[in-house]
Amino acid sequence: MARIDAFLKLGLAQGCSDIHLAVGVPPMLRMNGDLMPIKFRELSDTELESYILEILTAKQKDVLHQGSDLDFSYVAEEGGRFRVNVFRKATGYGAVFRFIPDDVPTLEQLNMPPILTKLCDYHQGMILVTGSTGTGKSTTLAAMIDHLNSTRSLNIISLEDPIEFVHPSKQSQVIQRELGTHVTSFADGVRSAMREDPDVILVGELRDADTISMAMTAAETGHLVLATLHTTNAVKTLDRIIDALPGELREQTKGFLAMSLKAVVTQVLIKTPDGRARRAILEILVNTRAIANLITSDQTHQIPSQMQTGRDLGMQLMDRSLLDAISAKEIDADDAIRFATDKKKFQRYVTDSGMVPVLDMGDESTV
Fold first, then answer.
1. Where does the chain have alpha helices with state H?
2. How far apart are CA 163 and CA 258, in angstroms?
3. Comparing C-alpha atoms, which of 263, 258, 334, 270 is closest to residue 300?
4. Do residues 220 and 256 make contact, with C-beta atoms less than 8 angstroms apart?
5. N or C: which end of the chain has fewer CB within 10 A?
6. Among 24, 164, 185, 176, which Cα is nearest to 97's?
7. What are 239-273's pLDDT values in tens digits?
8. Which residues 6+ apart lie within 8 Å of 328 measured at CB?
9. Nearest alpha carbon to residue 364 among 352, 348, 340
10. What is the pTM of this model?
11. What SS3 class is residue 139?
């Protein structure tokens, strides 16, 4: 058994989401969003390097020694699958292990709103799941893929960096391909997937203009494309895509978003009131004719007002979702306010008064 497995086993026993290993500090666990050290000595550079090199292949060692970061999947000898990032820093190596459950959660188990199930009924177009790192985007996408896999007869091709949840084929065929192992880039992966008779293409991240362009082409040519972006709300997501491509393609990109974008789902993870778990809270944009017109006329700043009046279509703004969850006692208000746009609306709920601005209550507006 690799020596690093002992830390991973301990982390799993504690119910953590991530295990951090770095020189000069003891191993640390991410518990419900907070980083906590375990009772162990500070790791030296030579000690940590030996732990990491012990689990790498010869090819991975070569990549690491050339100065590049590593992203890969690792299965501990005694069980447990992890997404791993190994990197270099001033004092030596570092690594983060994120636990990937064996069973793919369902949308119902994740308490996702019914609109996410409905979005899976589309046969073509693009659905984006966005949020900061560590907000559960991969888990949400995995649940959507599992729903498609369980309810429709499709050819589903996923492009991941690295492969996280493993999807056994059910009613659909699921082909999972890994960046660096099976394809050289996301853009090349999408290009290849379009020649493999796909119905659904999952793109792990729209990280560059080539990938965005290929994903748009796939969505325009009769495929359902699911993808992620590191953006924190619907409007920023649209602006990011428009700005990512060359200026001469701006009008074409706006036309694509107006016609082929189906929805943008942005999520954050908020602690529950007892602090023992976290729950995903969503902002959801569902594309309509009114929103499409705002996109093509460069008025994306007006989209939140459309989302505010589109609740019957499944749309919701982040602030409204946070307030609803606080009122239902599903999340902790002091944690939720960190993700709010208009923090004044949360003043009546928080217990730490230093987290909100001074407010004349007569000025408070509704979401």
1. 5-14, 45-53, 58-65, 114-119, 137-151, 186-193, 209-220, 234-244, 250-260, 289-296, 303-308, 318-327, 333-336
2. 31
3. 258
4. yes
5. N
6. 164
7. 999 999 999 999 999 999 999 999 999 999 999 99
8. none
9. 348
10. 0.89
11. helix
